[in-house]
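In this supplementary section we document a worked example of the pipeline. Step one takes a protein sequence of length 339 as its only input; no multiple sequence alignment statistics are reported here. Step two produces a three-dimensional model, which step three serialises into structure tokens for compact storage. The input and output of this example are shown verbatim.
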Amino acid sequence: MKMPHHVLSADQFNPEILEIIFEEAERIRKADAINSVLLEKPLQGKIIPLLFWEASTRTFISSFNAVVKLGGTPVPVLNAGKFSSVTKGETLEDTIRTCADLKADAIVMRHSEAGSAQMAADILDRYAPWVHLFNAGDGKGEHPTQMGLDIYTIWRNKKEALKKGELVVALAGELSDSRVFHSDAKVLIKWGVKKFILVSEKGNDLPDDILAEAEKKRIPYIKTTDILEYAEEPDVWIFTRLQLERKKVLGKILKIFPFLRPWVRRRYNQRFGMTKKLQARMKSSALAMHPLPRVGDMPEWMDEDERAVYLSRGKDTESQVTNGLYFRTAQLKLTLAGA
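The serialised model returned by step three reads:
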């Protein structure tokens, strides 16, 4: 099955396409474990700028490493808003067209504005249709490659339950502003889950179109402000930090009264983060996932719990971060070089 030319949204990916990428990721993982030097280099001679307007650790490094593993040449542009001609007033269109004119084969882009990835793809389709665009996060819009590694992690650990539609999935925290939740929810709806448990404050909800799609597929969802109310049900928990950078009104208040910031975070973490009470009531077989960074919402004491899969606990233990490397490597390979 042919991969999308641009990777922009979770809407582009159904279970069949994702399983092709997951299987390729497994092949690359096994080959890399045997001898990374002997990995195929299908991107040799290809130039891939990494344009990041927003801060990134995991997405940036895994994307960089993925290009290198496949033999390509990454061109890193971190903090593009300050360390490129954007500071001189250059538009997104001119930045994208410049990358194409400089013979880029693909662009991995993170931007602060929702919809910017689609805008960049439209520019490439008009002026350089041979160049691929990978959305590494566009504001509070979507994060399709994070979605890929999250579903890949679930697939590796609960494949049969995922494919049979037996999973109860809890999304805890920033339902309205988390691009990760938006992308994950879209694909989990396509795959078919038994139920969503949505945990957040009143009025902080998934976008209406996502909820409407769940209703269309007859997937029930429960909204609660009490993270302990249904603590025993979820097979998968996905958490996210408080996204203060997306809060326009609250952000302005905290600029005036910065001493309130620790209190705001602490209150959020106590209500929608991992706690000892929640840890004690979660299923013994549950997965505790987090896209990172964490800011107190996933305490370090949880790291040694075998249900925590966001970071490894040593060799041969599950890690979303490691899964992200192999998912992005496989996706790059299949998109730019085919099977």
